[in-house]
Amino acid sequence: MKRKRETEKGSEIKYAIEELSLLIQLKTSDNHDAAYIPTRPFLYVCNLVIQVLDKIGPTMAVLRQDINQNVKRIEMQCDSDSSLYSNLVDILKKEADDGNARKGTSCSKAFVWLTRSLDFTVALLQRIVKDPGQEMEEAVKESYNITLKPWHGWISSAAYRVALKLIPDTKTFIDLLKPKDENNDTLTEDMETFISLLVPVLEEIYSILTLYRLDKLKST
């Protein structure tokens, strides 16, 4: 699921800012008595995060695959009835009512892991903004340890430990993130904007996951 872009000159971070702004606009412009996370805008943001993680290279292949599979799972559910499942919270409610929320192929579990992947991305970008000179391997390791590792079993954790050996240096990652005609200061501003938009959304999502008792789910 990807939007068509009129230009290829912008960075993935800029596009993610656009999608987040749209998501927030939809949340605030419509009257919703209950919790509301627009399904398709959320999935668009996740797809753009995949493109950001691609810049790190094969190291993020495991996480990239997880995000892609989870996006497709929710997308299929949404496509089955776009009006009924336009709100991700309605999907959580239905699966909870049906007793399917904790099953391996549930959209609820997919939503949990997509949220954690976004949390990892925020943590990583925060470290790069704070200290562009920090080694990329260390930044990825620290971000992983506080966002994904607590929920991973030994199999997933082992896969990430191996992947850490393939990480590029920080300068290479930054150069890959920004368009050729953009300077580092502009990219830093974009990352700060992206973080400031996404963090409140993630906080709301974690409150919703806690409400549905999904916040403690672990993998193998």
Automatic annotation (TrEMBL):
PANTHER family to which the protein is assigned, alphabetical: GLYCOLIPID TRANSFER PROTEIN 3, GLYCOLIPID TRANSFER PROTEIN-RELATED
Protein origin, superkingdom: Eukaryota
InterPro entries: GLTP_sf, Glycolipid_transfer_prot_dom
Pfam families found in the cross-reference section: GLTP
Domain spans labelled Glycolipid transfer protein: 37-177
Species this chain originates from: Hevea brasiliensis (Para rubber tree)
Protein name: Glycolipid transfer protein domain-containing protein
